[in-house]
Amino acid sequence: MAISAVSDTTLREAPPPRRQRLLEDERWLAFVLLVPTIVLLGMFIAYPFMRGILLSVTSSRVGIPGDFVGLANFYKIFNDGIFRTSVYNTFLYTGVTTVFKLALGLWLAMLLNRNFRGKAFTRAFILLPFIIPTVLSTFAWKWMFDPTFSVLNWLLYHFGLITGRINWLGDPDLAMISIIIVNIWRGVPFFAISLLAGLQTISPELNEAAAIDGAKPWQRFWHITWPLLLPVTMVVVLFSVIQTFADFQIVYVMTGGGPANATHLFATYAYQIAIGTGLLSEGAAIALAMFPILFLVVIIQLLYIRRVEVR
Amino acid sequence: MIEGARWRKWVFFYVPMVLFLLFLLFPFYWMVITSVRPDGELYRPWNSINYNPFWTWKPTWEHVRYLFEETLFASWLWNTTFIALASTAISLVCGVFAGYALSRLNFPFAGSLGTAIFITYLVPQTLLFIPLAEIIRNYRLGDTPWSLILTYPTFLIPFCTWLMMGYFKAVPKELEECARIDGASRWQAMLYIVIPVAIPGILSAGIFAFTLSWNEFIYALVFLSSPEQKTVPVGVTSELIRGDVFYWGPLMAGALLGSIPVAIAYSFFVEHYVAGLTGSVKG
């Protein structure tokens, strides 16, 4: 390659303009190509991140710059009952939904990983919950959970399962369950389609060979499919954990953190404090409190990807 | 793979499949039926007699009319389209360039830069929206489409870069070298040889980025304030609810119509979308 570059420039009669010569140099070309990305990510990710840290150690409110207060904001939120509830909620929400999304997603992926009529069509439709703007589809769920006009209550009543109405979003525990259902609904397609892509790389001959040797379907799944699928599963789960942990839209639309602040997550509580009541620095502290966990998950993911690449 | 009696196929395949489809698609059916149902039928308690919630014999366009005549829904649609297209275009250009540099060029710190971009991929919007709102205000971008066109690439570029790196790695080095022996500069070889080969990847990244920016909510909610500047998700949320009163008919009609453009874009490129989705995870 170096030879061709040399002969290239020597053969030409007039030397190319300086700008072009610079672009022939790999390092300069790389620099030029990366500048727009670095500028945008620097301005709108790295810089806001630093600003967020600075903001969280001041007493800033909307319109008032505020003074340096050290860790007072963090001290305050850790003694705040609603913040503690939101921490608990966030872990519960992430844990429960991830288990269900993985189980149902894997099941759906296994169902899709076979030949049947209308397979492409089914797969396309299954992804809809993931594609349609979350806020808009969450409104459909909110309407389905409406205390007075709930179609779910209608169904349960007509199947004879309940006699009175269920006030889905009015009770703290039921509201949490409702939110969890919506998140599972939205996440299952993502899990299913990603895991399906993983399943399709597993050679069917492995399963056939095991079947001939007398392995039961459950044994085949546990000893062949699951270990081979594990790398994809890990990455999908870690991605989903990050997204779910920092989720905002579903709770914002379904309950707004209510009833009585019982269903807040980190993000919705940060929004309520910072934008709702204007305590910018306290809100920034709440949002930043997510960071250690997210950081941990990112580190696990990086180590895992590296390990897979090395193998 | 399910052998044996016919009933096994029903129990292990058809029944779960139908249940999955019902669970995943019912909310959309509910959206459609609510948006064409007259108000008189809509607000009937769930336990009233002779009430069939799943069908209506008197469909109406009233809610859609309300949406376009009494609200700024048409502007919201236009805003969302413009913002999604512009931020997708910016992200594609940046992502293709960065992906090319990181996957095919040798330069110092390439590895750590790649890792840094991957990490930004994992930064959720909710971590940064509060300081970012301040920065947007300081740059005097608040309440303009540019506040979103410039910030959406922060979660689109890392993904586009990551996906394009995969596609560029698959293009054989010889292809580029041939072009360079024939006298093409590095820049020309990239533009006319390598990038055209990776067009399927660009399409996947583009369609995925478009749906993501159409979907975005919290930045739009925080950065935009005047009703005529809003995007569909924010407009529907803030303008169709007055206090505790939900206008369910127009709300569902808005949700439906706000979903259709992205569903159409998706339906044309399902395969590319799936490639983008799975590529974004596999890396």
TrEMBL record, chain A:
Main location: membrane
Cited SUPFAM superfamilies: MetI-like
CDD domains with a match to the protein in the record: TM_PBP2
Keywords of the record: Cell membrane, Membrane, Transmembrane, Transmembrane helix, Transport
One GO process term, biological-process aspect: transmembrane transport
Subcellular localization(s) per the UniProt record: Cell membrane
Protein name: ABC transporter permease
Automatic annotation (TrEMBL), chain B:
Residue stretches making up the ABC transmembrane type-1 domain: 77-269
Topology class, membrane: Multi-pass membrane protein
Annotated GO biological process: transmembrane transport
A UniProt-annotated Pfam family: BPD_transp_1
GO annotations of cellular component type: plasma membrane
Family the entry assigns: Belongs to the binding-protein-dependent transport system permease family.
Name listed for the protein in its UniProt record: Sugar ABC transporter permease
Organism: Bradyrhizobium nanningense
